[in-house]
């Protein structure tokens, strides 16, 4: 293998091998731009070194050969006493990575060659300044000496001279500083500063290799999901000097504004300095535009080069450059980081400039960036220190008075107060309070806990599982770490994007992108800003490209209408259990407790018109688009009173010898229905098969509502979905009953109803027997929440708050499988079931309605396996549309 590439040998597409920096230096070299000559040691060499603890056998000779070539080209030798060649050694992985060793400059200087450099440059001060920089950087990054020791010595030298900036130190001051620095190295590293230039270079190269595995670098890779086995390249580059006097300097620049995307002159320049001075902020830089008056020739050349780079990379580039005595040198370039807003603006600007097409524009933005643009945010400048941190469950910024129960949340919000609902965890009873609140904070539960799922569905800010907070709902207070007590009515702020919790009020700004999706701001209108315009256009690109359709998870007309505004092409999941709350709970309670057929039928009869009305509204809101109604799913005990509360009530009544017949009956029922593992108990289709008349009542309500809409000249497109099916027999029974009810309604109303009946695939057995199940199902919708739960054996309500942090830290997975589909496990079941289902029934419709339907990476997977649609909460629809478009490019 070849381990070393001259800059003339590489190109920008070799990032795996040469790292980002090396690949781009090569690219610039081959574009004919002024890059100081040099070479790159490959990531392969690094991998060998890291695996075996030794550099590959061939490396030393290859480096020697490239160094020879460099020396003959430059006409001087590394560290040559009378006229030294100096080089920089810089790390450069495929992805830019803070936490890794960055740069050692001026390698080749020694007690001997510093004098030669002084002579050649005609500047003694410069030479000694360069030498002290080498010892400082080398000491810190190669020999591991605490950098503050050097900084302190430098400060002492400045104090002694009563000067504030290092340029005011004389050659003699710097000589003394070199002596002091060498002593620091000796003392701290237990060795002399190496005088042999090749030894300096080799040690620096090894230090770069080693820096791949520092704790900080590893942590960064885990967080950013960068694989640990890539390794880093090392760039050895001949030195050019920005610190040779006022006609020299160094700077950074962007080819356009990374915040707005606007073209113009953006960057900073520092006269008479080397690169790290800019980063360290030792002296104040001037805006790049001022370079024009300092050095017009270099400025004009730089502008020209920036244009060349933009046209070549067809993107915003950031660059580092140095001017040595009026000669401009390019030290680095890369496609620049940008804010989420700028990503959208730049993509459309580049389309307008004819540099990229629509397809490429879609690759320049991400769903995560769009999601970021959709949340209201805390004003950056006004934040205080967080008092706690939980799981960032539903992004956004919310401020309000802490309340500890739903009733108070509703009451206070009715009187105009903004509240944050604080609970240990939420359950369907809290729904009213959640709607009334600005945000939800819980101390238990993970990303798919009730609070998280419902909040995301509503687009409401939520922080869950903030375990350090002691929430005491009885005493209506919460204790934060450190002991401070938040009482009911105290203001708190929660950031659903970071999971952070703050005391007091933090100012919030709304998202213009949401205003646009909501139709409150129109692209093309005078008041629409550039961002909205850009988002509007990119969404149109995505919609033109995508094959996947996007539906919404919505349970009421209001959500449905919002989903439509956001671009939903139907409802993929209406969870009917959400329609049984509030006033209707009593009716459900009666249904569950019914001892006789008559009692049960009575309560079902009472529920029917209510359900029907729900559906009429929903079908009207989604007129002309498919609406998948899922029959009742959740465990029954969720509809019954809390077992402890009820026991207390019964016991109290007994001791007072009061009548408590009803409560007693209720308590017996609650005991009977209580389950250790409710998620795996009496739910879904099992419920429909056990409670006679329940599913048929729901089917009747759907059918009658559809007929009513039809009579009103509407175009209802209802689909009936059966949850938690494990075997085709369950489905067959429900189907038979449903078909009969539908036939009755058709007969009675004289309307032909085409109601497709399908099933959720959310149990492994359903996936494994999908070929049989498809005999009785006209569509499948993958319930990837339950499928993930059952495939992994992870309780969706508990694990994220209990051991997922440890799993993430150990790298068992990079992200929760409840958030991004686990392709290998859950995903392969989805793939298998899709194929088996379609083999039985070629026109089987396939969709997904678990949380993954709105997750960017998962959307790509669902596109790849050929689903027809994804369904997600209304606020995630734009993200799903965008990612479906990106997946199709
Ligand atoms: C699922 O399990 O993925 C699903 C959509 O159903 P629910 O979340 O209501 O169980
Ligand atoms: Mg489910």
UniProtKB/TrEMBL annotation:
It catalyses: pyruvate + phosphate + ATP = phosphoenolpyruvate + AMP + diphosphate + H(+). Residues 56-284, 290-341 form the Pyruvate phosphate dikinase AMP/ATP-binding domain. Substrate binds at residues 575, 630, 762, 783-786. Residues 417-499 form the PEP-utilising enzyme mobile domain. Pfam families: PEP-utilizers, PEP-utilizers_C, PPDK_N. It comes from Streptomyces doudnae. Its cofactor is Mg(2+). Its EC number is 2.7.9.1. InterPro entries: ATP_grasp_subdomain_1 (IPR013815), PEP-util_enz_mobile_dom (IPR008279), PEP_util_AS (IPR018274), PEP_util_C (IPR000121), Phosphohistidine_dom_sf (IPR036637), PPDK_AMP/ATP-bd (IPR002192), Pyruvate_phosphate_dikinase (IPR010121), Pyrv/PenolPyrv_kinase-like_dom (IPR015813). This is Pyruvate, phosphate dikinase. Mg(2+) binds at residues 762, 786. The gene is ppdK. One of its GO terms (molecular function) is ATP binding. NCBIfam families: PRK05878.1, pyru_phos_dikin. Belongs to the PEP-utilizing enzyme family. Residues 533-885 form the PEP-utilising enzyme C-terminal domain. The active site is at residues 450, 849. Keywords: ATP-binding, Kinase, Magnesium, Metal-binding, Nucleotide-binding, Pyruvate, Transferase.
């Amino acid at each position: 293998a070849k381990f070393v590439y001259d800059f003339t040998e590489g190109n920008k597409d070799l990032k795996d091998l040469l790292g980002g920096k090396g690949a781009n230096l090569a690219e610039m070299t081959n574009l004919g731009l002024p890059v100081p000559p040099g070479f790159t040691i490959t990531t392969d060499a690094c991998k060998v070194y890291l695996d075996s603890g030794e550099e590959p056998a061939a490396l030393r000779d290859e480096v020697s050969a490239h160094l020879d070539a460099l020396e003959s080209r430059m006409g001087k030798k590394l560290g040559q006493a009378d006229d030294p060649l100096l080089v920089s050694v810089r790390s450069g992985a495929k992805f830019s990575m803070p936490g890794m060793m960055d740069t050692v400059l001026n390698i080749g200087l020694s007690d001997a060659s510093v004098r030669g450099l002084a002579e050649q440059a005609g500047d003694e001060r410069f030479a000694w300044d360069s030498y002290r920089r080498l010892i400082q950087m080398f000491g810190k990054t190669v020999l591991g000496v605490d950098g503050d020791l050097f900084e302190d010595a430098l400060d002492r030298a400045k104090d002694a001279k009563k000067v504030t900036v290092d340029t005011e130190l004389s050659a003699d001051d710097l000589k003394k500083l070199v002596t002091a620095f060498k002593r620091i190295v000796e003392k701290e590293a237990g060795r002399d500063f190496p005088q042999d230039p090749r030894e300096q270079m080799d040690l620096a190269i090894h230090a770069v290799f080693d820096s791949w595995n520092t704790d900080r670098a590893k942590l960064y890779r885990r967080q950013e999901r960068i694989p640990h086995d890539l390794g880093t390249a090392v760039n050895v580059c001949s030195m050019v000097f920005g610190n040779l006097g006022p006609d020299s300097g160094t700077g950074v620049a962007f080819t356009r504004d990374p915040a707005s995307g606007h073209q113009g002159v953006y960057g900073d320049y520092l006269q008479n300095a080397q690169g790290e001075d800019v980063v360290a902020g030792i002296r104040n830089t001037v805006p790049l535009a001022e370079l024009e008056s300092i050095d017009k020739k270099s400025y004009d050349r730089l502008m020209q080069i920036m244009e060349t780079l933009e046209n070549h990379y067809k993107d915003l580039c950031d660059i580092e450059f140095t001017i040595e005595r009026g000669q401009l040198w390019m030290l680095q370039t890369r496609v620049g980081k940008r804010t989420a807003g700028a990503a959208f603006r730049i993509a459309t600007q580049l389309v307008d400039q004819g540099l990229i097409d629509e397809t490429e524009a879609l690759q320049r933005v991400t769903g995560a960036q769009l999601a970021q643009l959709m949340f209201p945010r805390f004003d950056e400048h006004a934040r205080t220190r967080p008092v706690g941190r939980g799981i960032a469950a539903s992004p956004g910024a919310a401020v309000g008075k802490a309340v500890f129960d739903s009733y108070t949340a509703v009451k206070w919000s009715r009187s105009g107060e903004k509240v944050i609902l604080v609970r240990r965890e939420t359950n369907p009873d809290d729904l009213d309070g959640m709607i009334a609140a600005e945000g939800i904070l819980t101390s238990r539960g993970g990303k798919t806990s009730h609070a998280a799922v419902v909040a995301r569905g509503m687009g409401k800010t939520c922080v869950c599982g903030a375990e350090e907070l002691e929430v005491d709902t009885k005493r209506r207070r919460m204790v934060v770490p450190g002991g401070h007590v938040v009482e009911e009515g105290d203001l708190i702020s929660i950031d659903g994007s970071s999971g952070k919790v703050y005391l007091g009020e933090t100012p919030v700004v709304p998202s213009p992108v949401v205003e646009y999706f909501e139709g409150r701001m129109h692209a093309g209108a005078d008041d629409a800003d550039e961002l909205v315009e850009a988002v509007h256009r990119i969404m149109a690109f995505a919609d033109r490209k995508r094959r996947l359709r996007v539906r919404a998870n919505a349970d009421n007309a209001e959500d449905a209408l919002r989903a439509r505004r956001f671009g939903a092409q139907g409802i993929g999941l209406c969870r009917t259990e959400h329609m049984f709350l509030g006033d209707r709970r009593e009716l459900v309670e009666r249904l569950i407790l019914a001892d006789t057929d008559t009692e049960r039928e009575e309560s079902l009869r009472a529920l029917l018109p209510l359900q029907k009305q729900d559906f009429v509204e929903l079908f009207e809101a989604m007129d002309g688009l498919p609406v998948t109604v899922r029959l009742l799913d959740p465990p029954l005990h969720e509809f019954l009173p809390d077992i402890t509360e009820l026991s207390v009530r019964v016991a109290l009544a007994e001791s007072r010898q009061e009548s408590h017949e009803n409560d007693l009956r209720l308590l017996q029922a609650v005991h009977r229905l209580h389950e250790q593992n409710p998620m795996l108990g009496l739910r879904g289709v099992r419920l429909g098969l056990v409670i006679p008349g329940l599913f048929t009542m729901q089917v009747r309500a759907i059918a009658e509502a559809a007929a009513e809409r039809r009579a009103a000249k509407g175009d209802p497109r209802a689909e009936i979905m059966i949850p938690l099916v494990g075997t085709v027999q369950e489905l067959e029974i429900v189907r038979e009953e449903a078909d009969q009810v539908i036939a009755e309604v058709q007969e009675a109303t004289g309307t032909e109803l085409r109601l497709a009946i399908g099933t959720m695939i959310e149990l492994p057995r359903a996936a494994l027997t999908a070929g049989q199940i498809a005999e009785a199902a006209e569509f499948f919708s993958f319930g990837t929440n339950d499928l993930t739960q059952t495939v992994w054996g992870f309780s969706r309500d508990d694990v994220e708050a209990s051991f997922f942090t440890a799993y993430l830290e150990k790298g068992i997975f990079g992200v929760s499988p409840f958030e991004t589909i686990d392709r290998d496990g859950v995903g392969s079941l989805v793939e298998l079931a899709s194929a088996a289902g379609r083999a039985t029934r070629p026109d089987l419709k396939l969709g997904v309605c678990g949380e993954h339907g709105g997750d960017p990476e998962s959307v790509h997977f669902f596109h790849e396996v050929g689903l027809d649609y994804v369904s997600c909460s209304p606020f995630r629809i734009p993200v799903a549309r965008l990612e479906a478009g990106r997946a199709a490019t």
